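Bench notes, bay 3.
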Amino acid sequence: MYVFLWIEQQRIPVGVLAMPDASHPMYRFRYGKRYLEHPKAYALNPLHLELVDREFESERLPYTFSDSVPDEWGKKLFTLQHGFVPDNEASYLCKGQMQVGAMTFGDSLTPQPLMPPATFSDIDEIYDLYQRIEAKKPVPAELQSLFIQGSGLGGARPKATLMDDAQEWIIKFPMKNDIFDNCLAEHLAMSVAKSANINSAETKLIAGKFGNAVAIKRFDRLNGQGIHYQSAMAMLGSQRIPVSQVTNTFSYHGIANLMSRFTENPACERLELFRRAAFNIAIGNLDDHLKNHGFIYQSRDLYALSPAFDIVQHPDKSMHAIATGKQGPQRDFNNLLSEAYAFGLHESEAKDIINDVYDVVQTDYVRQLNQHDMPQSDIKLLKAHLIKQHLV
């Protein structure tokens, strides 16, 4: 399988990803010699796929590539469109269109043509198609192209990539089993994150016959090109998370430590990450796993934290997905405070940030909940999920 990367307005072949087979049970990747000689070449992953002329082997598909594998909804669409279920995750990549970041994949040295996304004017029709899929009803072949780019960043709920004013947006739809207006709640949480001085992705609320959908502006796109993106999971490079490492490597602390190796301004990035951790604790965004943190390529193998995304409350959970401090994934400001030093902060500085974020959530978010047309039962549920813990 050939791997392509957007460089200087075109997709160029980067290397070859080989699948496991009877003669070789490992995934293998090797950069092409022409790519290695390209003046603008850079490593797909500066920590685990360095820009060198050698073969990289892995028992599982490296997260550098699995970041682009569709989620469960995307896999369902893939099976509908192509008529088969791949026997390994990498096979989802070969027939896929642009997913996350700047990489695409194909069977030949000529990259597949990219079909343009649908537009906002198609949103009702796309939602009708989603309902047909959920009901396991056939979808006409001529309509399947509407959701060919339907998977990407932003969680496992039904979604599509749509164009609006030459910008790509991910549209996330409501689900039948939502226990509250999830799309409205995500839009409000993302908006309030900006009020808390967090660099979060731009969102807008879209009302339709489906109720509320949330649109998230893609930060991994610029002028129709992909911008290279790596999740925190890819940068950490692990395929499985040993329980013994949950509280150090696979944690906010662990991400903070790692950033000194590939970000241009680690001190600023650590401060931003700490603020995000405080916000997630305050509002109750507990699905903060390593794939919900990521990095955008800048230049010279240097990255910056991507805008925050997929921020929404999870009243059905009580613990974070990764460790927030020495007490593991416990949702508690003092737990986050216990490792403030990892973010370059003195205790008093960390408390000020935590209290600032807390106050924004308690005032701005609560006000937004009350101002929008949301059922009182939803408001009660979401308010109850906010943490009550002002540090002194």
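Next record in the batch:
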Amino acid sequence: MGMSRLSPASFGFTRERKDRARGDKQAPDRRLVARDTKLRNRSRGLATFMRTYRISLSTPISIRRIALPPTAALLLGCTVGCGDNGAASSGTGAGDPGPMGAQTSGASASGSDGALGGTTTGAAGNASSGGTETTGEATGGTGMTCPLPSTFQWTSTGPLAEPRNTGAKSLKDFSVTQYDGGYLVYGTTADGNWNGFVSTFGSFDQWAAAEQRYIPGLVAPTIFYFTPKDTWVLAYQWSFKYATSKTPDDPSSWSATRPLLDGDPTDGRGTGPIDQTIICDDSDCYLFFNDDAGGVYRGSMPVSEFPGTFSNVTRIMDEPTSVIFEGVQVYSIKGSRQYLMIIENNGARFFRAWTADSLGGEWTLLDGAASEQQPFAGRNNVSWPGGQWTNDISHGDLVRENPSEKMEIDPCNLQLLYQGRDPAQNPAYIDLPYRPGLLTLVR
């Protein structure tokens, strides 16, 4: 990745001095031209670098610890770290809190006083916290990006992993983000009852060999890093609750659970509250969830009061279950002031999409992601290079490069971690053999 350099010998010093001496306002200071050209070249090089290695200024420092080719590292250092004369440039932003405690491995750990517990199926490693630097917009995402497509086309992997815990029949309901240079996935597993698991791995093709740390009682989780209070938050059902931790890959580290929702705003409709998700803008945090009867619900509280219990929840959307069923997810769109909502329907499982200009505003169905024939993600807009293995594109999460409460996604690099299953197997619902698959947007 070369940078174009300008030779001082290419400029006529004498002519430059004459131009400036006569006060000709149209004559440029050519040394300034050279400097500005150099800065533009550096900026273009940095933009290419950040797109190539999928880094933004809002990417947590712990996630930026990736191995870079020497030329890429040199470019980043010279462009970001050096002034025009080679002096270090100054800046602002939250620092990296540094490494957190090491995980325990191999033993069962049960939470006390309502805390989450877990067991391991393999060795554990060290973790570092997800401290972030933040920049930018009052709402939505920030930084270099692509527009959200008007229609969507995806390719899919085959099944990425098999259940590894005793008696487990499925892996499903995923929440995923980048963490410590790899990926952190929380999800549900079914072993006669609904329980949970967490896995970490460097890349999705390594998931099959990764540990699955078992977490009793955890169902349909949501995992994210809450920047204002430098803590990770894990929300889950039933009877929505949350816990906090500094080491999210260690299930024994979670705090005692606390209620996330006051009462039942659905008044017993459908299943009651199901499939929570949380997202914040600069001033407020929002809770969204479904009821398996066509409803979408929303509550909010000031960022300063989160995490806490939502109490002002109302139903904001109501459609037949063939349109709105479950698995709601809400994201900020990087580089814009828009938000994206995806929801799974009942029947043939696929996702539709809605957009809004604010988290507290009205949601509009996206024309190019509004039907089974033309969904946000479904079997009719997915190709399987290795052969189709599922008819369902079901409960999952768009992969987040930044784990923060803004739930930011990048349309340049959209991937959806979803649950699929062999359509020839039709046992009871709790025994359906769901497996993880990964969609990648075709641009």
